[in-house]
Design brief:
- This protein is mainly α.
- The chain has one domain: TIM Barrel (Alpha-Beta Barrel), CATH 3.20.20.
- Helix content is 39%, strand content 8%.
- The protein has helices spanning 9-19, 22-29, 36-46, 84-87, 91-101, 116-122, 137-149, 168-173, 183-191, 193-201, 234-240; strands at residues 65-67, 70-72, 106-108, 127-132, 154-158.
- The strands form 2 sheets. It has a 3-stranded parallel sheet with strand order 3-4-5. Strands 1-2 form a two-stranded antiparallel sheet.
- The chain is globular, with a radius of gyration of 20 Å.
- The chain binds flavin mononucleotide.
- Flavin mononucleotide binds next to loops.
Length: 244
């Protein structure tokens, strides 16, 4: 199947399954434990109705909305997902450009594989940075400061990853990032040569937390825009959650 023949998420999923080595596909597609929450979340969307606005004319369709203070042209935005350049060598660069094309927000993960500076200078639409609060306060502060300098308008503070999920599919497939070269993974790469050639011939990526410890920033004053339903002071969150 070609990308222009994909009509829905199911089609994209089948294409990804064919194109990606098993461990990478299952990292994206899988969830924790018995995947009960994953199924319930999907079913919850199926129960939602979209209410059409009838007799309103179709000449000027305005789908714009505001999310976390950002004006978006469509009521969708790209949620942060880790390690995008593992899925495709363009990774966040391509997703950010797609978000800009549709006038919407791009969210980059704390485990992103393209720098916030590059994203900041590439797109003009709203940008969100997803932050895992780190035990090393200098590291956390440094990441926030870099996002602020790169014109990120929204900070999404993740508080539900107290520990990594027990992702059973990853345990079965032996998923690692970067992919470890073993007999099993070599077999998987051989079955997906296009992915393997692209992955191994493009520049390696580093997670943004790498090398940051040296650049400690003790004081900073930046706009803090947390989720409103749980807008606690950052220091209180730090006390509640001391991450590794
Ligand atoms: C492969 C993958 C990686 C993800 N990585 C992150 C991440 O690094 N940080 C984060 O806050 N959320 C992450 N998420 C969660 C997504 O941002 C999003 O909240 C979740 O997938 C629910 O949205 P959906 O129903 O559209 O998939 C990830 C999700 C997936 C599928």
């Amino acid at each position: 199947m070609r990308i222009d023949r994909c009509n829905n998420v199911k089609d994209f999923r089948s294409m990804a399954r064919r194109r990606l080595p098993g461990p990478i596909f299952h990292y994206i597609d899988g969830a924790a434990d018995d995947e009960v929450t994953y199924r319930r979340n999907t079913e919850a969307y199926e129960r939602c109705d979209l209410v059409p606005n009838v007799l309103a004319g179709v000449e000027d369709i305005d789908m714009s909305t505001a999310v976390m203070g950002q004006k978006l042209d469509i009521p969708l935005f790209c949620s942060p997902t880790a390690l995008q350049r593992l899925f495709h060598h363009d990774g966040e660069r391509a997703v950010a450009k797609a978000a800009e094309k549709f006038g919407t927000m791009f969210g980059i993960s704390s485990l992103g594989t393209v720098s916030v500076e590059e994203i900041g200078s590439t797109i003009r639409t709203p940008k969100l940075f997803q932050l895992y609060f780190h035990k090393d306060r200098g590291l956390t502060n440094s990441m926030i400061e870099r996002c602020s300098a790169a014109n990120f308008g929204v900070l999404a503070l993740t508080v539900d990853t107290i520990t990594g999920g027990n992702r059973e599919r990853d345990l079965r497939t032996g998923f690692t990032s970067p992919p470890r070269v073993t007999l099993k993974s070599l077999f998987s790469f051989a079955l997906h040569p296009r992915w393997a050639v692209n992955y191994f011939t493009h520049e390696k990526f580093e997670l943004p937390t790498a090398g940051l410890r040296e650049r400690r920033v003790e004081h900073l004053g930046i706009r803090r825009r947390l989720f409103q339903h749980d807008a606690r002071p950052v220091d209180e969150l730090a006390r509640r959650r001391e991450c590794p």
